[in-house]
Amino acid sequence: MNRKRGFTLIELLTVMAIIALLIGLLLPALAQARKKAQLSKDQAQIKQIHTSWITFAREFDGAFPTPGLIDRLPDPDLGEIPGRGPEDILANDSANMYSVCIMQNYFAPQLCLGPTEPSGFVIVMDNYDWSKYVPMSDEYWDDNFQTELQVVSHASYAHTPIAGERKLKEWRDSLTSKFAVLGNRAVEDGEQTPGSPLYEASITLEIHGGRKQWMGNIAYNDNHLEIHQTFTPEGIFYLDLTVDPLESVPDNLFNNQTGTPSQEIGDGYDIWLTLVSEITGTDGLGLTVEWD
User: Fold this and answer.
1) Per-residue b or e along 194-224, where b marks 16 or more CB atoms closer than 10 Å to that residue's CB
2) Whether 284 contacts 163, CB under 8 Å
3) Would residue 46 be called left, alpha or beta, if left means φ above 0 and alpha means ψ between -120 and 50 degrees?
4) What is the pLDDT of residues 224-279, one digit of tens each?
5) What are the sequence ranges of the domains in the chain?
6) pTM score, whole prediction
7) DSSP code of 106?
């Protein structure tokens, strides 16, 4: 008489142990592969945004998207009329800039959200109002697009403020290979003192670095990207115009090193990547900036 033989308990436990061992070996590799994929996707999004700025510049005398030049102040003689009048400097905040690009179909709202965005306050704006684009009524973007990180934000990426010397020299298709204009956010004011509570508490470490060391994708104005693990990359300097002879100083990508003592004044000419939620003052140099 034939008898069907099943697996013994020992055999089942052995198989389960082998499966558990294989899973333990594969999970770290899968995690690393996922991390690299997210980093690559993030690079692609940043590059696409910067490429769209370059495309935009071809139609606007070399200037990147500048809200105050699109929605201008009333012309002294003609009143509110498209394409005429002084620049509305106070309109050049991050939300309006991104919204201008979205409204003119340079990229979708989803592109503004990084694939590893750790903040619950940063979300895709999935109800963007395309009907707001009515140039003859002096309407050019959806004002509900926001970049206030502790309230609600629809953008992950920091960029050079559209103000001061940075705006004049680099908010355009300058093709400068040593000037960064866009990238992942970082610790407030580029703080990187060893043991700094501000650094260690920053949520931006979770974007790519894993809570211990910041890592991010940075786009330079010639449209090349670099992965940095420091706020002061090698070979990136600014000229100190306050000394004679001029000195080259290592540039912190997230610190306003050449502005006034207040970090909210944007009149410098070094690299400074941040999000600007509000611009104030008649000269447009008073900035409310966002970090985490």
Assistant:
1) eeeeebeebbbbebbbeeeebbbbbbbbeee
2) yes
3) alpha
4) 999 999 999 999 999 988 888 889 999 999 999 998 766 688 889 999 999 999 99
5) 10-290
6) 0.88
7) S
